Amino acid sequence: MFLYRWDLKWCPIFGKLKTLLLNEWFTAVGLVCILRHSPVLEILTLKLDNTEDIVGATGAQETKTQSFVCACIKSVYVECEEVDEGVLAVLNILSTCGILRDQISIKEDPHTDSD
């Protein structure tokens, strides 16, 4: 997957979005874009079954290094089968976005398989 800069600038501002649930169908670039364009987001839930593609998008590293602060986020809930490399990468992205570890709750459940 390859995302161009001009694709990201067309992402709308989600000015009323306070709660968001995402499954594994996002990339690091997409997560940063959504967080950047959700100024009043308070609660983020990430349900992660397969984390291989999350950090696989080209341009993800560049986007992650352009830090900003998610000032309104109160809680982030991460539901995953196990804390693997992909989950750690997501936690790193959240940290880059100014989300503190105290705001993140991780629930490991080996039976969250979507089969």
TrEMBL record:
PANTHER family, alphabetized: F-BOX DOMAIN-CONTAINING PROTEIN, OS11G0201299 PROTEIN
Protein name in the entry: FBD domain-containing protein
